[in-house]
């Protein structure tokens, strides 16, 4: 049992592979564009002044962006801490309940189609390595892995993506002094550029699915447009009530 006890002592942090930033970029970018555009659309629907759009837009951009990144950090950190705790428990079970844990590996390998001598050989190989044994249990018994989970990096990427893509709906209003658009034209241009930004984020999202990049882009733009339409309608409705 020495090899198991040594593994328990050495197991302080879960191993992880390289950080994949794309999912956090997509997550932050979509939320940033949708929520900021929804604020702009709501204020526009209520026919409020441009300074109100900028105040509410930037307040949402940085406040919601920070809140989202903190939530991402705390969520990933909690998942890692839970992973480490359960992994430690599993290492102790290798010592205290060796035969029981072997039987669980046997059941797992049977589910993969191993039988007879091949099954026993697979169980023997897996249970000869404590780290591999526990990894197999973590993946198959608890459906838990630690790959690509980097709380701080995830929070930073989410925040930067939220700010960058979320600034698109405010771009025209911020630099309105340099363009010759009336209120309606500015809103239409903002809507078009925001939908284009969401479309591009959606094409990046397509890397996570087997669906065509164009379909993913259109879907993401549609979701953002729907959220903005709802916000615009609410703003217009409230204006009619108080007007």
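Q: What amino acid sequence fits the structure above?
A:
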């Amino acid at each position: 049992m020495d090899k198991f006890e040594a593994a328990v002592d050495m197991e302080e942090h879960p191993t992880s592979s390289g950080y994949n930033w794309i999912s956090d970029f997509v997550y932050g970018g979509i939320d940033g564009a949708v929520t900021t555009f929804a604020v702009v659309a709501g204020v526009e629907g209520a026919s409020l002044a441009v300074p109100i759009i900028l105040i509410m837009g930037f307040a949402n951009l940085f406040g919601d962006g920070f809140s989202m990144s903190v939530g991402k950090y705390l969520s990933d950190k909690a998942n890692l801490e839970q992973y480490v705790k359960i992994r430690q428990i599993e290492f102790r079970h290798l010592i205290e309940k060796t035969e029981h844990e072997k039987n669980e590996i046997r059941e797992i390998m049977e589910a993969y189609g191993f039988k007879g001598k091949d099954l026993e050989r697979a169980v023997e190989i897996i249970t000869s390595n404590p780290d591999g044994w526990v990894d197999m249990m973590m993946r198959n018994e608890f459906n838990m892995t630690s790959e690509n989970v980097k709380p701080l990096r995830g929070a930073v990427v989410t925040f930067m993506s939220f700010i960058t893509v979320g600034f698109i709906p405010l771009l025209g209003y911020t630099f309105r002094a340099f363009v010759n658009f009336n209120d309606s034209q500015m809103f239409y241009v903002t809507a078009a550029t925001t939908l284009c930004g969401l479309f591009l984020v959606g094409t990046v999202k397509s890397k996570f699915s087997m669906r065509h990049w164009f379909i993913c882009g259109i879907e993401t733009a549609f979701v953002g447009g729907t959220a903005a339409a709802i916000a615009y309608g609410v703003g217009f409705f409230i204006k009619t009530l108080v007007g």
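Q: And what stands out in the fold?
A: The CA atoms of residues 137 and 143 lie 8 Å apart.
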